[in-house]
Each structure stands twice: as C-alpha cells, then as structure tokens.
Amino acid sequence: MVNLVKASFLALSLFLVACAAPSKAPQSLYDEIGGAPTIEAITENFINEVSFNETIYRYFEKTNITRFREKFNEHLCVTTGGPCTYTGDTMLRVHQGKNINEADFNTTVDLLVNAMEKAGLTYPQQNQVLKVLAPMRDEMLYK
Length: 143
Ligand code: HEM
Known about the structure:
By secondary structure, the chain is mainly alpha-helical.
C-alpha cells in the first residue's frame, strides 16, 4: 500500500514537472522580431531608403506605393514565417521588363538591410531573412 502511494506520488511529480517544463515549440522569426508592427516598420523604412536612393528610386517612379506597401508587407510576413497570405504577383512577373542588374540588386539588398537594422533586427535575424530571399534572386535579375 505504502509503495502504491509512493509510486502514485512519483507519477504525479513527474507529470507536474513535465507540465512546468518550457515548451520547445520553435518560434517563428516573425514572432521573435515582434510580429506585424516590426514587419510594417521594415517596409516603411525600406520605402524611405528607396526614396533617398536616386538609382533605385528610378525603378519605382511609376509604382503605386500603396499597393507596394501592402504586397511587400505580406511578402515579408510570409518570408519570416508569419500568419499571412501573399496576394501579390510572382517575383518573376513583378520584376520582368525591368532588366535589373547585379549592382542594382545588391544596392536594393543593402537598402533592405538598413531597413531591418533600423527596425531593430539583429545580424543573425537579418541573415535569416536574406537566406530565404536569396533563391528568388534568379527570378529578378536581367528579366
Ligand atoms: C530583395 C529582393 C526583392 C524582393 C523580396 C522584392 C519584392 C517585391 C514585392 C513583394 C513587390 C510587390 C509585388 C506586387 O505588387 O504584386 C515588388 C515590387 C517591385 N519591386 Fe521588388 N523585390 C526585390 C528586389 C527588387 C529590386 C532589386 C528592384 C529594382 C532594383 C525591385 C523593384 C521593384 C519595383 C519597381 C516594384 C514595383 C513594380 C510595379 O510598380 O508594378 N525589387 N518587389
């Protein structure tokens, strides 16, 4: 009887310890950086950075900035693993006909890095975003 009580107590203790242990569910980068407000800050900073760069701004002269803001936000949200749906066009379609060269592509990435830096992302967090975007490069260059 005593053994049974001891065993029950042990089982209960193990159960309580298991419940109290921190959850190991991996957090998305989206949550880690602060979710929607941070994503919106990056987009806003990026638009600002582009507007101050003569070379890159030239590409955006005829762009509907309200649409760009909305679609870029969604895209960044998905890129960071957030709970969004991207409703814009494919990267190929959007950048087609612009004949974007490597130098301008790299400059744009630098502007995005500045935008992320100003929104408070750490270097590892910035790199995580760039790593997801890197494979899309071929859809944008010289199209
Ligand atoms: C770093 C990777 C890039 C990403 C993730 C990206 C993403 C996007 C997104 C999500 C849109 C909006 C799509 C839509 O309206 O359906 C867009 C539009 C646009 N992007 Fe990019 N982009 C990138 C690089 C570039 C580069 C390097 C340039 C030019 C130097 C560029 C120029 C543009 C322009 C001009 C538009 C507006 C298109 C229009 O007015 O119809 N993007 N981009």
